[in-house]
Structures are given as structure tokens and as C-alpha cells.
Design a protein that fits this description.
Elements (H helix, E strand, L loop, with lengths): L1 E12 L5 E12 L3 E5 L6 H9 L6 E6 L2 E5 L4 E2 L7 E4 L11 H11 L4 H14 L15 H13 L5 E5 L7 H18 L2 E6 L2 H7 L2 E6 L2 E7 H6 L4 H6 L4 E7 L3 E3 L2 E5 L2 H4 L5 E5 L5 E3 L11 E14 L2 E8 L2 E8 L10 E6 L5 E4 L2 E2 L4
Parallel strand pairs: 3-9, 3-10, 7-8, 8-9
Antiparallel strand pairs: 1-2, 1-4, 4-5, 5-6, 10-11, 12-13, 12-15, 13-14, 14-17, 15-21, 16-20, 17-18, 17-20, 18-19, 21-22
The chain binds adenosine-5'-triphosphate and magnesium ion.
Length: 368
């Protein structure tokens, strides 16, 4: 069942350079799923969440929660936030400083007129879920950032909202805490099974937490798919770049295929299905290196000759090589193995056709 449906939503902010923060967005979120909105700063993630919550008024479109329309520009319907069954967690915790942890968590229940005993029982329960049962009597100022964020989460969960909106809830925390709380959030989501929209610009967080991932670009959704598909098959060049796929080569067809870094040789079936210019993206882990006089790493590979190693960086179990070919820098990540190259070594760079992501006019054209 769809818990949330957003249709053709438009939100413009007035002003001289009128910004279309959300531009005809369609999204459907299934019950129990965690949809992650991923995208660079200013692409409209927060605005979209705030429209769903009723904290911003959109100009066009429709929002349906659990089958009930809560916003419809055509009929002028616009339900206020407190009538939408939504819990929210923001980046900056926003706990009431003058209230204890327990009072903070009970606050949204008070508005719903539950009894004191019910409120106490429920706050105990959600504080257990976020592993902060022992902090009930403290004030927010006496808590670490990670604890404050857990309390903010507990407060949002307390009224058992159908939908949780989480806007970069971990981005104020240090790296270690983020990793810990991310895992915890994943477990809480599994345990409670709420429907969530989670905003982040951190792709590791997105792929860790998202059942599906929507990548946004200037107010629009550029790709919405399973986390796996977004990672493996970025639908557009924009998504490939946003995911930080570092090797990008413009390819054109002459007598054979020529890249910015020089001609390509070998098994070109993947490219030969196309005529026009292509943009090829390859992850550093998918590039191989071999010595110029050695056979290619695999006879089925496409190869680019004439490169040389300009830098070698060791990081854990891997080696990152920076290779220059025809004035273009390529990034190659290999496991530490016996064949190692040094700065100045001549190398041939090769890749399997299936690892090339090919784009024509900005859109993915190959099927892997
Ligand atoms: N109150 C406002 N008035 C005018 N313009 C706004 C307002 N809030 C946001 N904007 C503009 O709308 C666009 C989308 O902003 P939004 O806050 O939704 O981005 P975001 O994706 O959440 O970015 P970030 O990752 O930095 O939080 C931006 O261009 C922003 O400058
Ligand atoms: Mg934001």
C-alpha cells in the first residue's frame, strides 16, 4: 500500500530570482519503506520534506497520506501540520532546553490528550528503543550530540506516526557517532517498520539506509530506484558525477573509438552498439593496470595504452594509482598485490566492457 503519494508538486519561493525549489515532483512511498532523498546542497530536499509535513505551502500539485488528500492546489485543500500523521527529526535536534528528556518525549503525546500513565509508559518504551532509558531525568544541555539526536528521534516516534521525515539527522555528529547511529537507525526502522523519508547528501548513508533512493537535481527527481540500481546503474551523467565516479572519458568514433586519453583497443562490442559520441564513466576499482609489454589483464578487456603512473597512494588493503594518459588523469584502485607500479612506470589501463557506464546526451545507454 502507498502510505504517501506526491503528485506534480511545485514549490516556488518568491523574490527577484524566483527559485523553483521543487519542480513537478512525483513520489510514491510504500508502507514500511525508507525512501532516501539524496542530492547536493540547494537541490530542494528540505523543501520537499517541509511541503509533505505542511510546514511549507506548495503552489501546485497534490499530497496524499494514507489515502487521504492533505494538500491539493486544485481544490485549495491544505491540512495543517498537526492534522497530518507525521513525525519529524531535524539536523539540529531542536529539543526543548527547559524540559527533561522524558518531558520532551512526552510533549507530542500531551497534545494528543493521552493520560499521564499512558504518556509515561510510552516515553519509557521509546527511550528504550533508542537506548536512552537511563537519561529520562536529564536536561538536553547535559547530553552529548548523539544522545540529543536519539532523544529527538524518540520524541518523533512517541505518537507512533505513520510517516517519519528525517532531515539530515546525523549530519551534526562526528564521523564515529554517525556510523554508530546510522546502524542503530537501521535496526530501529527494521524493528518498528515505520514508513520514512530520509534526507541526506551523504551517499554512504543513503545506500546504507535506503530501501529506495531518489537522487534530486535542481528541484527535480533525476533517478528513483532501488539503492542497488542507483549505485550500479546511475541513470544519468549527473547521477554518475554526483556519486563521485571519478573516471569520465569522452569517446568519439573515428576509424576506431578514440578517447580524450588516446585510442581504445581490443574488445569493443560494448561501444560498437553505438554510433555517436559517448561519455564513459568507470569506477576506479573497475580499472586494471598492466605493463605495456605484458598481455592485457584480461583478453576480453578494452585497453588504453600510453599511460604512466604519476602518483601512488596506499590506503589500507588497497593502492590508489593516479595514471596520466594523453593529458587526462585516471584513478585506479587495486588491491595490494605482487604486481605494483611506481611513479614514472609506463602502464596500459584496461577495463571489462560490462564495467563501462556509457551515456549519450546525458542518459545511460548500455545495459551492463
Ligand atoms: N525560505 C526560503 N526563501 C527563499 N528561497 C529558499 C528558502 N528556502 C530554501 N530556498 C531555496 O530553495 C532551494 C532549495 O532549498 P532546500 O533547503 O530545499 O535545499 P536542500 O536540498 O535541503 O539543501 P541542503 O542540502 O543545503 O540542506 C535553494 O535554492 C534555496 O536557496
Ligand atoms: Mg536541507
Amino acid at each position: 500500500m502507498q502510505e504517501l503519494k506526491v503528485e506534480k508538486l511545485v514549490k516556488r519561493y518568491p523574490g527577484r530570482d524566483q527559485v523553483v525549489a521543487v519542480n513537478r515532483v512525483d513520489v510514491e512511498v510504500e508502507a514500511g519503506e525508507m525512501l532516501v532523498l539524496l542530492g547536493p546542497s540547494g537541490c530542494g530536499k528540505t523543501t520537499l520534506l517541509r511541503c509533505v509535513a505542511g510546514l511549507e505551502d506548495a503552489q501546485e500539485g497534490r499530497i496524499v497520506l494514507e489515502g487521504k488528500t492533505v494538500f491539493d492546489s486544485a481544490s485549495g485543500l491544505n491540512q495543517p501540520t498537526h492534522l497530518r500523521d507525521i513525525g519529524m527529526v531535524f539536523q539540529n535536534y531542536s529539543l526543548w532546553p527547559h524540559m527533561t528528556v522524558q518531558s520532551n518525549v512526552e510533549y507530542p503525546l500531551r497534545a494528543r490528550k493521552s493520560s499521564a500513565a499512558e504518556r509515561a509508559a510510552r516515553s519509557r518504551e521509546v527511550l528504550q528503543v533508542v537506548q536512552c532509558g537511563h537519561l529520562a531525568d536529564r536536561y538536553p544541555a547535559m547530553l552529548s550530540g548523539g544522545q540529543q539526536q536519539r532523544i529527538a528521534l524518540a520524541r518523533a516516534l512517541a505518537p507512533r506516526p505513520k510517516i517519519m521525515l528525517l532531515d539530515e539527522p546525523l549530519s551534526n555528529l562526528d564521523a564515529l557517532l554517525r556510523v554508530e547511529l546510522r546502524a542503530h537507525l537501521r535496526a530501529i526502522h527494521r524493528e518498528l517498520g515505520f514508513t520514512g523519508i530520509y534526507v541526506t547528501h551523504d551517499q554512504i548513508e543513503a545506500f546504507n539506509l535506503g530501501t529506495r533512493v531518489a537522487v534530486m537535481n535542481a528541484g527535480r527527481i533525476e533517478q528513483l530506484d532501488s539503492a542497488n540500481n542507483v549505485y550500479e546503474r546511475p541513470a544519468t551523467e549527473y547521477v554518475a558525477r554526483f556519486l563521485g565516479i571519478r573516471n569520465a572519458l569522452a569517446l568519439r568514433r573515428e576509424t576506431g573509438w578514440v578517447s580524450d586519453a588516446g585510442p581504445l583497443e581490443g574488445q569493443m562490442q560494448v561501444l560498437d552498439r553505438h554510433r555517436g559520441p559517448l561519455q564513459m564513466f568507470v569506477r576506479p576499482q573497475a580499472l586494471h593496470l598492466s605493463a605495456p609489454d605484458a598481455p592485457p589483464a584480461d583478453p576480453g578487456h578494452m585497453a588504453l595504452r600510453g599511460g604512466h603512473v604519476v602518483d601512488v597512494l596506499y590506503s589500507g588493503g588497497e593502492v590508489d594509482y593516479v595514471v596520466e594518459a594523453g593529458g587526462v588523469s585516471l584513478f585506479v584502485t587495486r588491491p595490494i598485490s605482487r604486481t605494483r607500479f611506481q611513479p614514472g612506470d609506463a602502464v596500459t589501463v584496461s577495463l571489462a566492457g560490462q564495467d563501462a557506464l556509457l551515456y549519450a546526451d546525458g542518459r545511460l545507454v548500455n545495459e551492463g
